[in-house]
Hints:
alpha+beta, 4-stranded antiparallel sheet, 3 helices, 40% helix, 30% strand
Amino acid sequence: xxxxxxxxxxxxxxxxxxxxxxxxxxxxxxxxxxxxxxxxxxxxxxxxxxxxxxxxxxxxxxxxxxxxxxxxxxxxxxxxxxxxxxxxxxxxxxxxx
Length: 97
């Protein structure tokens, strides 16, 4: 069963600096994770409680766990902890294939 990790980032203090780090550092780390099938990201705008959403797709829960257990996944998690504004959320969704 396909699994999607959804990351909801709250509004950053400095959106330009956030986006620079997000696209220059964080997303390359994400794309290096083994087993990642697809990654999507988009912005909500300034009035929404969330600034940006990322959706990462994996074949199943085991593939997700293996990805985040890898050195690339650890680097991605560590970077998330540095850049995610307070109140950001991680959700795991099992998709009906």
